[in-house]
User: What shape does this take?
Amino acid sequence: METITFIPTADQLGYTFGGKDPVLRLKPGTAMTLWTQDAFGGALRRTTDKASVCLGHDLNPQTGPFYVEGAEPGDTLVVHLVDLTPARTWGASATIPFFGGLTSTPLDPTIQEPLPERTWIYEYDSAAHTVAFTAQGSEFSAALPANPMLGTVGVAPAQREVRTSLVPDYFGGNMDTPEMRAGTTAYFGVNVEGALFSLGDGHYRQGEGESCGTAVEGAMHVTAIVDLIKGGGPQWPRLESNTHIMSVGSARPLENAWKAGQVDMIEWLGSLYGLDRLDAYQLLTQISEVPLANVVDTNFSVVTKVDKRLLPKATVYGGIHAEMTSRAASLGSISY
Amino acid sequence: METITFIPTADQLGYTFGGKDPVLRLKPGTAMTLWTQDAFGGALRRTTDKASVCLGHDLNPQTGPFYVEGAEPGDTLVVHLVDLTPARTWGASATIPFFGGLTSTPLDPTIQEPLPERTWIYEYDSAAHTVAFTAQGSEFSAALPANPMLGTVGVAPAQREVRTSLVPDYFGGNMDTPEMRAGTTAYFGVNVEGALFSLGDGHYRQGEGESCGTAVEGAMHVTAIVDLIKGGGPQWPRLESNTHIMSVGSARPLENAWKAGQVDMIEWLGSLYGLDRLDAYQLLTQISEVPLANVVDTNFSVVTKVDKRLLPKATVYGGIHAEMTSRAASLGSISY
Amino acid sequence: METITFIPTADQLGYTFGGKDPVLRLKPGTAMTLWTQDAFGGALRRTTDKASVCLGHDLNPQTGPFYVEGAEPGDTLVVHLVDLTPARTWGASATIPFFGGLTSTPLDPTIQEPLPERTWIYEYDSAAHTVAFTAQGSEFSAALPANPMLGTVGVAPAQREVRTSLVPDYFGGNMDTPEMRAGTTAYFGVNVEGALFSLGDGHYRQGEGESCGTAVEGAMHVTAIVDLIKGGGPQWPRLESNTHIMSVGSARPLENAWKAGQVDMIEWLGSLYGLDRLDAYQLLTQISEVPLANVVDTNFSVVTKVDKRLLPKATVYGGIHAEMTSRAASLGSISY
Amino acid sequence: METITFIPTADQLGYTFGGKDPVLRLKPGTAMTLWTQDAFGGALRRTTDKASVCLGHDLNPQTGPFYVEGAEPGDTLVVHLVDLTPARTWGASATIPFFGGLTSTPLDPTIQEPLPERTWIYEYDSAAHTVAFTAQGSEFSAALPANPMLGTVGVAPAQREVRTSLVPDYFGGNMDTPEMRAGTTAYFGVNVEGALFSLGDGHYRQGEGESCGTAVEGAMHVTAIVDLIKGGGPQWPRLESNTHIMSVGSARPLENAWKAGQVDMIEWLGSLYGLDRLDAYQLLTQISEVPLANVVDTNFSVVTKVDKRLLPKATVYGGIHAEMTSRAASLGSISY
Assistant: This one.
């Protein structure tokens, strides 16, 4: 298996999906060792650093894009996350004026005052694999299990568009779901030649919904295997883990993000099990798991999950998830 | 512990929260053995029965209301579900014209045609504790684990209102969350003297979101313990299990249901741990679990869950959940 | 024409649609002279009175309900507003904490602080027929044309429900549209025997949307003629003026209120002109006028208007609007 | 006054805001005579042409972009529409599968079937200045007054983005408001050097909301004067006519589009009249006119209008609207 290592310099970072020349070309089947900057661009290092210093600057830097040889519109890009390891000993989170789920925002404005700014620094204990929350208004702390994930993974959009890395949509992007963790295989519909995928926005931990708008944001070491399936590009990003298949819809209002993932899953169940639309709708009704991803970004994202263990064994995308899991194992223990 | 058994006759069933005289008065601390009719009023018994025969009739019959002595506006009604046992050997689900999450509805109309009607009957295997899905458009079946729950539990609303049993809102009602299962303690703010709570809408199993609008609907044997805490009535229904505390918001659009539960949980975390609002917001951001409840009813419902095991031990509502769990155990094995 | 005068005492006022005994029974065709209290119950008389003193009290008092003899579910109640005359020399408006369109609210909460409270008193100049806005944070005033309207007109709901007078829905209620002015005929579907309609919430003037949540609220003298058409009850409240036919949808989110009125108007145009659904949809697309009603109440309300002068002459509800306009003229000049 | 004529060839048409080289550079103060293709690219010429033939092709071609010399981020681009004259003797409208306001769409999907496709051709009578609607499912026709407008006018977006011409947003674009008619002055915040504005999507007539998704679409002759104000770029597109000032918000759900325009108007009223935020909010509440623009595009658009005649005379953007109206008159009678 070909292996590529890419650590972006500051001026190689990307802030869009589409509209940027690829930093590298690679063949399907390549394993990649990458580093991602955090969403604040590293600007928050102590609790006295305020997130508003980032306003007016580009946010959510991405590593990439990568040109995948042979990828054409309509194909399926496959990204298997082998490993995500925090690249710093701390992550940062913050309230940002008029950003987040429980405040008015430019897309949902009121004439109220913004919430106060506050920054939290979470020490990452790599031995215990925890991140430490420390309250600022009182004496309280809690060590929370780290659960590294990538908030943002996606490909270039269609229709000549260029979108900021803050947006989640049909091309992936800033979906902010904890399901994007090591062991997960992601499937994206390819919209342009070479797919031009990129990734970033490491979270050492995030709750479902990402209420205040920022997770425990941190630089991340990423190992991933990238592959290509000709044709079959899904309408919305799909994920597969050892236990679940998932579809991630992104839209506003929130029910529309849910509907998108549900309709996609109905189509998927139909094709996997030969169910007609009504039967797949009925079956999904009784087995759907629906954790929120984010209710804070430009679009909201909702995951529709189906537990594979409830259903007869089916071959998903030619069994590529199992194959990649096995290829990942062959990489041996990973250190950065 | 006082114990009451109540099996409603057809004309004792209720179809509203508020506006109905109590069927019984009971003292706080009473254990109740109840039976609930299914949401279709038992009308769907075979796949040739269509749900549209129910239109124009009352739907979602409730068992109750029960007058809890001493309950006054502002108090907290506590309902601990001890046991939910399917009362039939089958449950039913159906597509209903212009009802459900992936169709236009009277509250979100289009001028498209309705989906076709179809009814599914799920055999309940009490030994294996499964319900069997059988496709109608192809050969496919799957035995799914039963997960009995109550779709509808609530109290009379405030402001003189009477609401149908189809509505979920701040008073509970038709929230349709799988979290309302045996072992769960529910807390409701009391709005009228006696609280006037009722329950029904048994589901032998339901996915998160209840996509097509109907779960595996079935009559249910219910054992519950009812208690009262003076004062402290929460703004939204709260739930507690052995592992989680939860708040259930209901509204439209879906993000508003989410916001309601999140804001309530921030207040709850604040009062449990002495956190100020921003610290509680931040902490919730990193630990929130957010499974959807329903995206099909008159209001949509979203659950905000916090895993108690992530946080220091706290005394929730005076420890009444543990106490009720222990009282439930003292009831011994339950048969109906 | 039979004529009834009814001036409610404070304890005769109603705060719900449904759930209240009628204050009067009347025959179809009756002319009524009524008085309505303002939405604050008269509590705001000077700028130092704050609206929050009303919280916890009943708001939006209604005059009624009136039992219309012969009205049965499925019928069409017809209410023609003959005259609306301000009953005081001043109206009041106010910001109320967590109420209004440009603030978070209990149905769309955030954890931001509420807006400051402020009360404005508008002098009503009956000679000039203006209401005077006076700024409080600076020197500025403007005399605005008075445009008296009723924020709330409706009938008892179906399905045994009782709803507060703050809610607009399919039964009318708190729609808050400036179209509800003298000269307008309103059509409501009857849900219960006697229809049980009531009205109130006079506004001396209101912009479309009622942004801050309160118009220029004032007590009103109301003259109306009430009639009944057997059958034909519309799904949403319909209005007719000399120039327009209108349908008022109420729902959340706002697009759903729009859809409701649009779909109802498509059905209406279809029945008036023999258009099939697609032709009516197309025609409406090019002629629809859509002023917002309110974006602040429990449901939002949107008016779909069609200018009758663009289309061939049609007989609407048997020509009852013209007939009532003529009956109104026969009442001669009105003084209270 | 410098005058430029530009009639794009087919391959000069643009389909995005941003991402395209300018077709022309011009100085502030230039008058332009332009031609715009219709949104279907001229593909619908008779009722047997179906809009679905356009799917997969670029839609909504724009004339431009034009580079305005001296325009820098933060400036205000001023576009005064002098004249809009239909460039064909017919316009076309159509239902498109899964597109429009009263059907499910990819952004708000259901599993229902699409509406049938149908195309309507409206003859444009230049003498009577009417467009003729002809029903297809029955005998019915109506001559409707033509009301030429541009559905799409905008500038390049910020943050390196490129958006399709189907999207309305803070940079203008596909707002689809009938207010964009001859005599209107539009103000856009400049996001990139040269502003890069373009326009197109002529409608010979459109109702508010554009229910079915397509107006009476037709090629248009456009005369406009373009100017630049240094600084002062508004957050949302603003319009000014002889009688009104307006702000156009675009977002989903629809209430958010409304909020955006309202908040912008509060700021505008504040700066014009020295009102503090609460006074401006109150005043707007009583004088706002709110016609919908579109409820069918990728974002929905809502216009907040204020009648200038209700308020003391104020100088808006230095009085440039009056000045441009006068410059427009100096162009004399326009023929194409």
Observations:
- The longest strand of chain B covers residues 76-86.
